[in-house]
Structure formats: structure tokens, C-alpha cells
Amino acid sequence: MDRATALPERDVASRFAEDRIDGWKSIAAYFGRDRTTVIRWARERALPVHRLPGGRVGTVYALRGELDRWASRPVDGADAVDTVAPAPPMLLPDSSAASVPVARGRPRPRLLAILAALLVIAIVALVTVWPAAPRASGVVLPADPAVASRFLMARDLVAARSPATLARGVALLQAVTTAAPGFAPGHAALAEALLLSREFAQQDDAEAFDRARVAARRSLRLAPDLPMARRAMGFIAYWADHDRAEADLQFGAALAADPDDALTRFWYGNILSDRGDHVAALRELDRARLALPGSIALMTDYGWALWAAGRDAEGRAILDWVERAHPDFPVAHECLSIVALVEGDFTAHARHVVRVARLRQGRSLQRDAAGLDRALAAGPADVRRVVTDRAVRQLQAGTDPSPAVAMLIAARAGRWDAVAARLRIGEARRERWGEAGILDRVVRLSPDAKVWEARIARRRI
């Protein structure tokens, strides 16, 4: 586990509070300048200032570390900042300073693609972009300072996306909605936290979706056009209800209300990628990257979206870098476990799956990991057998958590009978599946791409 995950919840919250500077006036004081100057720096020189989602008009904050790194950049003239000690430039880890290792004799286009991906990594890691002008959200924080403080702290904790910070964030938001039941952003933020808990903590999918749906609906009853709540409902419509049209409707409403909301574009970009709208997906994710530089979650999903779109070398290079730089981020291991399957490396797949289980700490995941640990100790043949047998059993019974991944495993093992069985089950249940990038790989591995694409297309969302 990384340090953020291992810290007690109180220490995690304290760390956020100590590093954060709230409001233009305080940010200006940090530099020894006036408020007008730092607002101009944010607009013209990419000063890393963040707008608080759901906050009152003009409410912003900054992080000391980001300000120090920004101030260390050389600038000539009257705007040069000399009130903050220069910090060393942020560099990629040594392991990624050179290009990703490439087998000798590979064609030059692959090398260029990897170098392009590394350029993306460098840009994401080093550049902070601020919108042309601060947007007014039109939403006022609760009048009670204690409730407002809990809300803002909860948002910070949820943004950290670790099991400990998410659990604490959910608890704080529940307290906020109890103390201020008429505060719509509190309910919407609770819905968002519950949805993230599915992926980064131990929250059960069904329970998380049910609770998030209730919270988002309460928010919309209070504020029908609140972007946060529309975004949550769009997320639920797609991932829980598999309703593509409703998801588009909700995300469209969220973006109409706030076109610059980076998280809305991030989540919608992931949905577009999952259903195979790759050009639109990358466009949305690029918009999100402008406002969320350095976000490891976004960087990981961007790498996955590139891979899903068929830009394998670029996507793989980004995912590999995230794994090296942030080895305790589970989503990167999850993505790489699937990439390994496509490459026919069952051992690498198993190692990533075990790592995900250790990080997410779910009991069922731990049981699966124990079996894979034994297989890894026995050797590659045992790993392939254990992984394949489990996937085939799930496909034949229709109990797989991800039909696409299980079908990919079966396809790699030549078990097309199991793939066909799962398609029949899916047709009987009228299921709709996303994971377009994985299903595309299943088709490529098939003995007759035209036939299998036609069969799989009937199940695509």
C-alpha cells in the first residue's frame, strides 16, 4: 500500500488541510502579491489554482507543493516570483527517463509511437493548465462553517481515491447530508463518493449503485440542473443499467450546465471508450486532461483508452509508466492484466490480478489470488490451466464478473465452445456488454472474424 493508503484517516485529513491554501487572498499572501496579480497569473501563466466543485462563486484553493513548483519556473520581467524558494523540477522516475524498452529490430513506427506516448506522460506530469477565466458555479456552501468545512474536506479525501480516504469521505458526506439535508451538492458528492468506492475500495457494486442512485435523486429534487448529480445519474445509467441513451442524456445535461467540468468529461470519455466511440472518447479525455494535469486516475484511463482504440504501443507505454511510478494504483494493474492476456502472457496476467486483489482487499478477490499464487509457484503451465479453467467455468455458467475478459481468456486458450456458450446465455438474458476494446481483440483472435463479430455485435451496448 502507498503512504496515503496506510496513513490513519485523521492523518490523511490533516495532510490535506496543512497543504491547502484557501481563497485568492491567501494565495496572494503566499506570494506576497495582491489578489489581482494572482488571478491574472492563473489566467495568463497557468498558476495551479483549483476551483472547488459546488463551492460558492469564485471559491478556489491551491496546494503549496504545486505553487512552489510553478514558482520555480524561470520568468523574466516584473512578474518573476522571488518570494518562494525554488523547488527542484518534477522529473519522471529514473525507470522512465529513457524510452520504454523495445525489442531489437522492431520497426521504427513502434518506436515513434512509444516516444509520442512518453511525451504525453511528460506533459501530464509537468504542465498545469488553468481555464481562460474562473467560472462561477452559482452554488453557495452551507451557512454553517463546520458543515461547509466537512464538505470541502470530504471532497479532498474522495479525490485521493484510496480505501481509507474514500471511507472517511463517505462518512463525512453522510454527516453533511444529515446536518444540511437541503444542500444539493452534499447529496451529489455522496453519490460520487459511493460510485468511486466501487473501484477503489471494498464497496459492493449493487449496494454502491443503489445508495448512489438515492443520493443523486435527492440532489436533483433540490437542484434539477446540478452537474454533479446529472453526472452521477449518467454514470449509473450506463454502468448499472446499461442504458446508453439515458447516459448520453444525463451527461449532455451535465455538460450543458457546466461545459468546463473536467470530471464530467473524464467520466463521459470513459463511457465512450467502453462502448467503442474511440475518437469521441479521446476528445473528451483530452478536454479533461487540460483541467486535471497530473491526475494518475485520468492518466491511467487515457492510456487504457488509447490501447482500446488500437493505439497499443502508446497506451501500453503510459500504463507501464503508471505502474512503475505508482505501483499501488490498482486500476493500472487491472488494465495491464488484460493487455497481458492479449499478448498471451498468462503469468503476467496472474501477477497483475494478484496485485489488484492485494490492493483492493476484497474477500473474493483474495480467494482468487490465493489460487493464483499457488499456480505461480508451480509454473507457467499451471497458471495457464488455472486461469483458463476458471474462465471457462464462469462462461458456461454465466457467472463471470466481466464476460469480455473471460471470453478473451477462453479465446487465448482456443476454447471457442465456452465463448459460444456465453453468447447464448447473454442472448437469453438480453444482456448488453461494453468493454469494446476487449471484445475487438476477441474477434481478432477468432477463427472467422466476420462470423464472430456478427455474433458479438448483437450483445454490444
Short summary of the structure?
By secondary structure, the protein is mainly alpha-helical. It has helices spanning 3-6, 9-19, 24-31, 35-44, 64-71, 108-126, 145-160, 163-179, 184-200, 205-222, 227-239, 244-257, 262-274, 278-291, 296-308, 312-325, 330-342, 346-360, 363-378, 380-397, 403-412, 416-429, 436-445, 449-457; strands at 20-22, 50-51, 60-63.
Structure notes:
- Strand 2 and strand 3 form a beta hairpin.
- It is globular and about 70 Å long.
- The N terminus is likely disordered.
- 68% of the residues lie in helices and 2% in strands.
- The longest helix is centred in the first third of the chain and has 19 residues.
- It has a domain of 116 residues.
- The chain contains 24 helices and three strands.
- It is mainly α and 461 residues long.
- A three-stranded antiparallel beta sheet has the order 1-3-2.
| C-alpha termini separation | 35 Å
Query: Could you tell me the mean pLDDT?
Result: 82
Q: What is the share of helical residues?
A: 55-70%
H/E order of the elements?
HHEHHEEHHHHHHHHHHHHHHHHHHHH
Outline the biggest β-sheet: 3 strands, antiparallel
Q: Helical region count?
A: 24
Q: What gyration radius follows from the Cα positions, in whole Å?
A: 23 Å
Per DSSP, what share of the residues sits in E-state strands of 2 or more residues? under 5%
Return residue spans where pLDDT drops below 50 for at least 5 consecutive residues.
1-12, 53-58, 82-109, 122-137
Would you tell me the structural class of the helices and strands?
mainly alpha
Q: Name the shape in a single word.
A: globular
Describe the strand arrangement of the main beta sheet, using strand numbers: 1-3-2
